[in-house]
Specification:
- It is a single chain.
- By secondary structure, the chain is an alpha/beta fold.
- The chain has 8 helices and 6 strands.
- The radius of gyration is 17 Å and the shape is globular.
Length: 211
């Protein structure tokens, strides 16, 4: 593994946690996984977005910060490989989609205060797949509250990520197109995926097609 701290990102159902688990196992590294199942507002949000959006996004941000700050401030943490299945800025991006203008301004103020305390990843690895593929994955994993997710919502999230990445010229970002590829069960495709983590990348967006 060429990088010490890697963040796996992607849309809902892209396989972020699956890949993070595989990388941690492959390289014997430390994994940081988002504890979304413990969030009391998540299911409520999908039932009534306007009522629960602010509670959801605020709780997610505080939980993510507490987790990342605790783990990444451990002594000698970067003596080993570290992989997370989310980036902290994810909080700000989803808040922009789900919150009103006034709520987002308040949210952004707190985000700006605490985000400076966290180290940035050496590499952001974004799994790209089209909306139908994502919906198929969402259906397969069977979380009841996610079954109301729509293609327009997933497409909006995708655009949000791409717009944000364009504003990060000093960050190394790899966007991997995994459409029509079975990198989970196909060992040859997975090996190709692993090889991507040993490459040098320029700063900014690097687009790779996984075949």
């Amino acid at each position: 593994m060429k990088y010490k701290y890697v963040t796996i990102e992607g849309n809902i159902g892209a396989g972020k946690t699956t890949l993070a688990n595989l990388l941690a196992k492959e390289y014997g590294g430390k994994i940081i996984k988002e504890q979304f199942r413990d969030n009391p507002y998540l299911a409520k949000f999908y039932e009534d977005k306007e009522r629960y959006a602010f509670q959801l996004e605020m709780s997610f941000m505080l939980e993510r910060y507490a987790q990342l700050n605790k783990v990444l401030s451990e002594p000698h943490i970067f003596d080993q490989f570290v992989v997370s299945d989310y980036m902290f800025t994810k909080s700000l991006l989803f808040a922009k989609i789900n919150l009103s203008r006034e709520e987002h301004q308040l949210f952004r103020h707190l985000f700006d205060l605490i985000s400076k305390k966290l180290p940035k990843p050496d590499l952001i690895f974004y799994l790209h797949a089209d909306a139908q593929h994502l919906l198929d994955n969402i259906k397969k994993r069977g979380r009841a509250y996610e079954q109301v997710i729509t293609k327009p919502y997933l497409n909006k999230i995708e655009r949000m990520y791409m717009e944000y990445f364009k504003q990060m010229p000093d960050q190394k970002i790899v966007v991997v197109n995994v459409k029509n590829t079975d990198w989970v069960s196909n060992v040859f495709v997975f090996q190709h995926l692993l090889e991507l983590f040993d490459r040098d990348y320029k700063k900014g967006i690097n687009v790779v097609h996984l075949t």
